[in-house]
Amino acid sequence: MARIGAGSRAYLLTAFSGTPDGTPPWVADMEFGDDPGYFGEGSAVWAVHGGRPVLVAGIRALIMQTLHPGAMAGVHDWSRYREDPLGRLAGTVRWVLTTSFDDRAGADASSAMVRTMHSRVAGTYVDASGARVPYAAGDPDLLRWVHVVFADSFLRAQQQLGGSIPGGADQYLAEWATAGQLMGVDDPPRSEAELRAQLAAFGPTLIADDRVKEALRFIRNPPLKRSIMPGYHVLFAGAVASLDPEYRRMLGLARPWWPARTATRIVLFFLGLLLGRPSSSEVYARKRLARLAAATTAE
């Protein structure tokens, strides 16, 4: 049993970080930065992104992103998510954790790397009116959609499945707006009211076509180890339960009849025991903060 647990732990850590011990070089390098970063200890971002509910938030964000035909076209045309879903997941996790826990130079470099990758992503898609329109991953509209979906998913997962947020939801959104700006988002939402308004503004552009259905089938049943799938299906159900009803209707997803939120909390609890707490990113970030504090005291 211990061997099975160790194997599952290594598998999950590889999925999230790219290495079986959960400490790739880019995480260990967080110890050597020159400043506390954009957020730091005690911030709302650390509280939200350092918690296990982010696992549900990630699934929820993927589900939500499919509704924008431009974002879906970029994924369909350019992403290797079918061939290398864990590699794509690890890349997204790296950007989120680096932006959240690294120093400012590390966060800036990670965001610049993602922007460079996006600069090559372009094509056309059919919008909600049936017209074919051009898109590029760096389009302000698409950048905003991705940011608000991630922000909404992180926030809802923490509110429904995690603990309190220092300063509340508005504080989290005001802090995480910095990440949106690093990615080129103009005027990202800084409060729940602004987040709701910006999400609502996308309503007329969202569609659920055959590409969306294909992506949802993949997200519901990704090619993970068989031993992982029962827990993943619970997390997927928790993500679906956290969606606003209008999005579930568009996606053709029904709220689970069983207590998905309670079951999700149980799975997250056991994942916490399996993976450990805090994350290696937070551990090395705290080492950086301790070193900087010691240097200040010595002066």
Folded structure, characterized:
With 299 residues, the protein is mainly α. The chain has helices spanning 2-17, 25-28, 44-49, 54-65, 69-78, 85-101, 104-118, 140-161, 168-182, 192-201, 210-220, 229-242, 245-251, 260-275, 280-298; strands at 122-126, 132-136. Strands 1-2 form a two-stranded antiparallel sheet. A hairpin with a 5-residue loop joins strand 1 (122-126) and strand 2 (132-136). The model has no long low-confidence stretch (mean pLDDT 88).
Q: Which descriptors apply to this entry?
A:
65% helix, 299 residues, 2 strands, mainly alpha, two-stranded antiparallel ribbon, single chain, 3% strand
Evaluate the radius of gyration: 19 Å
Number of strands: 2
Major sheet characteristics: 2 strands, antiparallel
**Strands ordered across the widest β-sheet:** 1-2
Mean pLDDT: 88
* Number of contiguous helices: 15
Measured by DSSP, the beta-strand proportion falls in under 5%
| Tally of structural domains | 1
Taken from the alpha-carbon principal axes, the silhouette is globular
What does this entry show, briefly?
The protein is built from 15 helices and two strands.
Describe the SSE topology.
Layout lengths: L1 H16 L7 H4 L15 H6 L4 H12 L3 H10 L6 H17 L2 H15 L3 E5 L5 E5 L3 H22 L6 H15 L9 H10 L8 H11 L8 H14 L2 H7 L8 H16 L4 H19 L1
Antiparallel strand pairs: 1-2
